[in-house]
Design brief:
434 Repressor (Amino-terminal Domain); Rossmann fold; 12 helices; LacI family DNA-binding transcriptional regulator; transcription regulation; HTH_LacI
Length: about 325
């Protein structure tokens, strides 16, 4: 069986069958399914797309995301390093989730137009979009997001546990008046972090004032959100002795707000972040935070997609890491008022 035989049996042109084999756009779904049925029935096994044309993996980011924020840059770096070492191309694509639009199937079409044969997704996708990727035979792995269906891989950290561990650390220092600067709670990892904070406080018998939970203020620069939210907090609740920020960038902004209000960090107020960006070690004061292995997560996601394309693995893994508490100099015992 060869490409001409498949074309003849399916009633399609050789060019159309070629596009199907290359997973390219410009083919109706009806024609694509006709070709795929003949290919599967015949047992025809062409060389993989990556062998014929070279692997190109898309790094898919949600449109409007701060793409050069430290979180994204670390994941990008992990993917890019692996791509460089293994000799394939990684290309950045922006995508709006399906629930914001009436159309469907656009993620698959976008990947085909850009001739990408695999994807690392640093953006949430719906179950429908996940199944579209599986049907299109585009190996895909989510980073810092999860979708529990077979055929879509993911790699993430236990955000609930990470926030719990940070809160427990502050509680062990003697803090009880601890505030939380929320991220966008429509994103699962952010809501998990908030839940971990609340459950740790509850377990320790600490009642959390509603005002200690500061709603997210979307900004173009993440540090600005932390700064704005911390100013609101300090104006309304000067009794606070510690702040847990949803991520390191927000923690940087919170530290700036504290200093502007005449508070010393950590002598008057402790601040912790989340993620452990490369700059957190060198911030003044160096930031206590929860480390996510973002470089490794990016590299692992790219490796899994690459190995799936090369038929070295049959299933894309689902893996959840536990973060590592990194204690530096932004925390101290609570001040005595």
């Amino acid at each position: 069986m060869n490409i001409r035989s498949i074309a003849k049996e399916s009633g399609l042109s050789v060019a159309t069958v070629s596009r199907v084999l290359n997973n390219e756009s410009g083919v109706s779904e009806e024609a694509r399914q006709k070709a795929l049925k003949v290919i599967e029935r015949s047992g025809y096994k062409p060389r993989s797309y990556s062998q014929r044309r070279g692997t190109r993996i898309a790094i898919v980011v949600e449109a409007g995301a701060p793409s050069f924020d430290s979180f994204y840059s670390l994941v990008f770096t992990g993917i890019s390093r692996y791509a460089w070492e293994c000799g394939f191309e990684a290309t950045l694509l922006y995508f709006s989730p399906e629930d914001e639009r009436d159309s469907s199937g656009e993620l698959v079409e976008l990947l085909r137009k850009k001739r990408c044969n695999g994807a690392v997704l640093i953006a949430p996708i719906s179950e429908k979009e996940g199944r579209d990727l599986i049907a299109a035979r585009i190996p895909s792995v989510l980073v810092a997001h999860r979708l529990d269906i077979d055929g879509i891989g993911y790699i993430d950290c236990n955000n609930f546990q990470g926030a719990w561990d940070l809160t427990e650390y502050l509680l062990r220092l003697g803090h009880r008046k601890i505030a939380y600067l929320c991220g966008n709670l429509e994103k699962g990892n952010n809501s998990d972090r908030l839940e971990g904070f609340l459950k740790a406080m509850e377990k320790s018998g600490v009642d959390v004032d509603d005002g200690w939970l500061v709603e997210h203020h979307p900004t173009d620069v993440t540090e600005q959100a932390g700064y704005d939210q911390a100013l609101i907090l300090l104006e309304r609740h000067p009794e606070i002795t510690a702040i847990l920020a949803n991520n390191d960038s927000m923690a940087y902004g919170a530290v700036s707000a504290c200093i502007e209000q005449g508070l010393r960090v950590p002598e008057d107020i402790s601040v912790v972040g989340y993620d452990d960006y490369l700059s957190s070690r060198y911030y003044n004061p160096s930031l206590t935070t929860m480390r996510q292995p973002l470089l490794e997560m990016g590299a692992s996601a790219a490796r899994w997609v690459d190995e799936k394309l090369k038929n070295k693995i049959t299933e894309l893994p689902h893996r959840i890491f536990r973060g590592e508490l990194i204690v530096r100099k932004s925390c101290a015992l609570p001040r005595s008022d």
